[in-house]
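Priority: low. Protein: Ammonium transporter. Input follows.
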Amino acid sequence: MQKIFAPLAMLFAMLFMSPAWADTAAAPVPDKGDVTWLIVSTLLVVMMAAPGLGLFYGGMVRAKNMLSVLMQTLVVFCMLGILWAIYGYSLAFTEGNAFIGGFDKLFLQGVTADSLTGTFSKGVVVPEFIYIAFQLTFAAITPALIVGAFAERIKFSAVLVFMALWFTFSYLPLAHMVWFWAGPDAYTSAEAADAATATAGFLFQKGALDFAGGTVVHINAGIAALVAAIMVGKRLGYGRETMAPHNLPMTMVGGSLLWVGWFGFNVGSNMEATGVATLAVINTMLATCAATFAWTLTEWARKGKPSMLGAISGAIAGLVVITPACGFVGPMGSLIMGGLVGVICYWGVNGLKRALGVDDSLDVFGVHGIGGIVGALLTGVFAAPSLGGTGVWDYVTDSVAEYDMMSQVIAQAWGVGTAVVWSAVVSFIALKLVDLTIGLRVSEEEEREGLDISSHGETAYHS
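Result:
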C-alpha cells in the first residue's frame, strides 16, 4: 500500500503545496458585483453630463442660448475625456510628488484588461480600466459645471481653451492632492503606514476627508465660476432686462437626472458594493430631500411664494453638500447637513450674489462653491462616531481610529483653503491668457442675437 500511495502523495504536494500554486491562490480577483456596480456608476455619471447638466443649465438660459449651453457641456465633457486618457489619469493617479503625479501612464501605457487597482479594503481589487473610466467622468463633468457662470456671452473657442488649461492645472493637481495614496494593502505596520502616507497627495497627508469630490469637484469648480463670472463680465442688460429661465420644466428634468446620476457619483466612489455603499445611498437621498424642503420653506417665508427653480436648486445644493460626506456621516447627520445647506445656499444665490454684484449666470458659485465649502467643513463634524458617523478607519489596526473632531475640522479647513486658493489662482491666470490671445467674449451684436445662431448656426426652436 505504501508503494501505491507514495506517488500520489508526491503528486498532491506538487499540485497543492508548490509556491507557484500558492501565489496564484493568494492573488486577489475582482468581484463581479463590484465591477458591475462601477460600470453602472460610470454610466450614471455620464448621464449627469449628457443630458442632465445640459438640460438643467439649458432651461435656465434664454431661448436664444439654449443650444450653446448644450454644446458647451457636451463638447467640454468629450474633450476632457480625451485629455484624461492622454495624460490626465497619469498626472492624477500615479506617484509623483505631493501636488502632482508622474508620467508613468501617459496614453494609458501599460494598462491592460488584466491590470488591477486597489479599493478601500485590503485584498480587494477592481480592473484598472473601469477605475480609469469612472474617474474620467469626474474629471470631465467638473469643468463643465463652470459653464453656468459665463453662459450667454462667452466665445465657444474661449470655453474650450480655458477648460483645457483649468483641467490641467487645477483639477488634476487637486485630484492628486486629495485622492492619491498607496492603497490599504500598503498599511501593514505603523512604519509602513508612515512610508506610504509620505507618497500620498498633500491633502491626503493632511488628513482631509473627501468621499466623492467636495473639494476636488465642487469647491474647485465653484471658485473658478466666481473668478470667471468676474473676469468675463456681466451680460448685456443684466439688472435692467428680464433674463428669466425660458423652460423651467426642462430645468426640472435636467436636475432630476442629475439627482439620479449622483448616486453613481457618490455611491460609486466607494468602489465596492458594500455596506458603506448603502450608507452613501441613504445619505445622498436624505440630504437632497432635506435641502430641497429647507430651500422651499426659506423662499416661501422670504418671498411669499415657493418656486420650482428654488426647489430644484435646493436639490442640487443638497447633493453638493453631501458629496464629501456621504460615506462618513450617519443618516441624521445627512439630514442636518441638507437642511442647513438649503438655507445657506438660498442666501448664497440671493443675498451674497447681490452683495458681490457678480453676474454668475446660473449660480454655480452660490450652489457648488458655497455648498461645497459647507459640506467639506461639516464632514469633519458629522463623521464623528459620537454623532452617528463612521469615524476614520485605521488600516494598520483594522479598526476605527480615535476621533478628534477639532483636528478633523482643521484638516477639512486645509482642504477648503487649498482648493479655494489653488482654483482662484489657476482660473485667473488661465482666463487672462485666453483673453489676451483669442478673447473671452463674443461681440455685442452676437450676444444680442444669441449664441445659438451666432456661434453655432442653429436654433433650438422654430416658430
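The mean pLDDT is 94. The longest strand covers residues 116-118.
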